[in-house]
Protein backbone atom coordinates (compact mmCIF):
# COMPACT_ATOMS: atom_id res chain seq x y z
CA UNK A 1 0.00 0.00 0.00
CA UNK A 2 1.23 3.43 -0.89
CA UNK A 3 2.21 5.76 1.96
CA UNK A 4 -0.09 8.41 0.47
CA UNK A 5 -3.23 6.39 1.26
CA UNK A 6 -5.62 8.36 3.46
CA UNK A 7 -8.95 7.85 5.18
CA UNK A 8 -11.47 10.64 5.60
CA UNK A 9 -14.61 10.48 7.73
CA UNK A 10 -17.30 13.14 7.79
CA UNK A 11 -20.88 13.58 8.95
CA UNK A 12 -23.55 15.87 7.55
CA UNK A 13 -27.26 16.56 7.54
CA UNK A 14 -29.47 16.05 4.55
CA UNK A 15 -30.88 19.24 3.07
CA UNK A 16 -34.11 17.48 2.14
CA UNK A 17 -36.74 15.56 4.01
CA UNK A 18 -35.27 12.15 3.31
CA UNK A 19 -37.28 10.33 5.95
CA UNK A 20 -39.94 9.29 3.47
CA UNK A 21 -40.13 6.97 0.46
CA UNK A 22 -38.04 9.31 -1.71
CA UNK A 23 -35.05 8.58 0.51
CA UNK A 24 -34.37 5.21 -1.13
CA UNK A 25 -34.34 6.77 -4.60
CA UNK A 26 -32.02 9.58 -3.53
CA UNK A 27 -29.66 7.19 -1.74
CA UNK A 28 -29.58 4.92 -4.80
CA UNK A 29 -28.67 7.94 -6.92
CA UNK A 30 -25.91 9.00 -4.50
CA UNK A 31 -24.54 5.46 -4.40
CA UNK A 32 -24.54 5.10 -8.19
CA UNK A 33 -22.72 8.42 -8.64
CA UNK A 34 -20.27 7.65 -5.83
CA UNK A 35 -19.48 4.16 -7.07
CA UNK A 36 -18.72 5.33 -10.59
CA UNK A 37 -16.50 8.22 -9.55
CA UNK A 38 -14.81 6.32 -6.71
CA UNK A 39 -14.02 3.33 -8.92
CA UNK A 40 -12.49 5.64 -11.51
CA UNK A 41 -10.37 7.38 -8.85
CA UNK A 42 -9.44 4.20 -6.96
CA UNK A 43 -11.31 5.26 -3.82
CA UNK A 44 -13.20 2.86 -1.55
CA UNK A 45 -15.47 3.49 1.40
CA UNK A 46 -18.89 3.24 2.96
CA UNK A 47 -21.97 5.44 3.34
CA UNK A 48 -24.43 5.45 6.20
CA UNK A 49 -27.69 7.37 5.98
CA UNK A 50 -30.04 7.36 8.93
CA UNK A 51 -32.80 9.73 10.04
CA UNK A 52 -31.59 12.61 7.88
CA UNK A 53 -27.87 12.23 8.64
CA UNK A 54 -25.05 11.06 6.43
CA UNK A 55 -21.78 9.55 7.55
CA UNK A 56 -19.20 8.55 5.00
CA UNK A 57 -15.76 6.99 5.00
CA UNK A 58 -13.53 7.60 1.97
CA UNK A 59 -10.24 5.71 1.53
CA UNK A 60 -7.60 6.14 -1.15
CA UNK A 61 -4.85 8.33 -2.50
CA UNK A 62 -4.89 11.70 -0.74
CA UNK A 63 -5.56 13.75 -3.89
CA UNK A 64 -8.44 11.51 -4.97
CA UNK A 65 -10.06 11.61 -1.52
CA UNK A 66 -9.67 15.40 -1.42
CA UNK A 67 -11.29 15.70 -4.86
CA UNK A 68 -14.31 13.67 -3.80
CA UNK A 69 -14.70 15.50 -0.48
CA UNK A 70 -14.51 18.84 -2.28
CA UNK A 71 -17.42 17.73 -4.49
CA UNK A 72 -19.37 16.65 -1.40
CA UNK A 73 -18.83 20.05 0.20
CA UNK A 74 -20.53 21.71 -2.77
CA UNK A 75 -23.28 19.06 -3.08
CA UNK A 76 -26.66 20.69 -2.37
CA UNK A 77 -27.91 17.48 -0.73
CA UNK A 78 -25.61 18.09 2.27
CA UNK A 79 -25.47 20.76 4.95
CA UNK A 80 -23.56 21.10 8.22
CA UNK A 81 -20.72 19.02 6.79
CA UNK A 82 -18.32 18.21 9.61
CA UNK A 83 -14.95 16.64 8.87
CA UNK A 84 -14.09 14.25 11.69
CA UNK A 85 -10.76 12.89 10.55
CA UNK A 86 -8.48 12.90 7.52
CA UNK A 87 -5.22 11.06 8.00
CA UNK A 88 -2.86 8.50 6.54
CA UNK A 89 -4.43 5.07 6.97
CA UNK A 90 -3.58 1.46 6.36
CA UNK A 91 -5.13 -0.91 5.69
CA UNK A 92 -8.37 0.10 4.01
CA UNK A 93 -11.48 -0.90 5.95
CA UNK A 94 -13.67 -1.25 2.84
CA UNK A 95 -11.24 -2.46 0.15
CA UNK A 96 -13.83 -4.44 -1.79
CA UNK A 97 -16.35 -1.63 -2.29
CA UNK A 98 -16.11 1.57 -4.29
CA UNK A 99 -18.93 2.57 -1.93
CA UNK A 100 -20.56 0.11 0.45
CA UNK A 101 -23.92 1.06 1.91
CA UNK A 102 -23.90 0.68 5.68
CA UNK A 103 -27.66 1.02 5.89
CA UNK A 104 -30.42 3.29 7.00
CA UNK A 105 -31.12 1.97 10.48
CA UNK A 106 -28.25 2.86 12.77
CA UNK A 107 -30.74 3.40 15.56
CA UNK A 108 -32.06 6.25 17.69
CA UNK A 109 -28.93 6.47 19.86
CA UNK A 110 -26.83 7.19 16.76
CA UNK A 111 -29.34 9.80 15.54
CA UNK A 112 -29.33 11.53 18.92
CA UNK A 113 -25.53 11.54 18.93
CA UNK A 114 -25.45 13.09 15.43
CA UNK A 115 -27.93 15.80 16.43
CA UNK A 116 -25.79 16.75 19.41
CA UNK A 117 -22.59 16.52 17.43
CA UNK A 118 -23.74 18.75 14.60
CA UNK A 119 -25.35 21.24 17.00
CA UNK A 120 -21.92 21.92 18.52
CA UNK A 121 -19.19 20.90 16.07
CA UNK A 122 -16.46 22.74 17.98
CA UNK A 123 -16.89 20.26 20.85
CA UNK A 124 -16.16 17.26 18.63
CA UNK A 125 -13.25 14.99 19.31
CA UNK A 126 -12.95 14.05 15.63
CA UNK A 127 -10.51 11.21 16.15
CA UNK A 128 -12.64 9.55 18.84
CA UNK A 129 -15.88 10.08 16.93
CA UNK A 130 -14.22 8.90 13.73
CA UNK A 131 -13.08 5.69 15.42
CA UNK A 132 -16.57 5.06 16.83
CA UNK A 133 -18.22 5.63 13.46
CA UNK A 134 -15.68 3.45 11.69
CA UNK A 135 -16.45 0.55 14.04
CA UNK A 136 -20.21 1.12 13.67
CA UNK A 137 -20.04 1.32 9.87
CA UNK A 138 -17.78 -1.73 9.58
CA UNK A 139 -20.25 -3.73 11.67
CA UNK A 140 -23.25 -2.45 9.70
CA UNK A 141 -21.62 -3.20 6.34
CA UNK A 142 -20.96 -6.77 7.45
CA UNK A 143 -24.65 -7.18 8.40
CA UNK A 144 -26.27 -5.56 5.38
CA UNK A 145 -26.76 -5.71 1.68
CA UNK A 146 -23.97 -3.29 0.80
CA UNK A 147 -25.42 -2.45 -2.59
CA UNK A 148 -28.01 -0.06 -1.22
CA UNK A 149 -31.61 0.49 -0.28
Features:
single chain, 149 residues, alpha+beta, 5-stranded mixed β-sheet, 4 helices, 5 strands, globular
SSE pattern, N- to C-terminal: EHEEHEEHH
Within the largest sheet, what's the order of strands? 4-1-3-2-5
Shape: globular
* Distinct helical segment count: 4
Structural class: alpha+beta
Helix content: 40-55%
Overall mean confidence score, pLDDT: 79
Provide the β-strand percentage band: 25-35%
Provide structural commentary.
It contains 4 helices and 5 strands; from the N terminus they run E-H-E-E-H-E-E-H-H. The chain is of the alpha+beta class and 149 residues long. A 5-stranded mixed sheet has the order 4-1-3-2-5, with helices on both faces. Strand 2 (44-50) and strand 3 (53-61) form a beta hairpin. The longest helix has 20 residues, at 22-41. The mean pLDDT is 79.
In short:
Helix content is 42%, strand content 28%.
Q: Layout of helices and strands, plus pairs?
A:
Blueprint: E1 5-14, H1 22-41, E2 44-50, E3 53-61, H2 62-73, E4 78-88, E5 100-103, H3 108-119, H4 126-143
Amino acid sequence: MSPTEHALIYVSRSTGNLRDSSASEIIRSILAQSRAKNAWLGVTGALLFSEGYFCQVLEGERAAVEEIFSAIESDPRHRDITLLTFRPATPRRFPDWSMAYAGAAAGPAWTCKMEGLLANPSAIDGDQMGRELLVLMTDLVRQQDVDGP
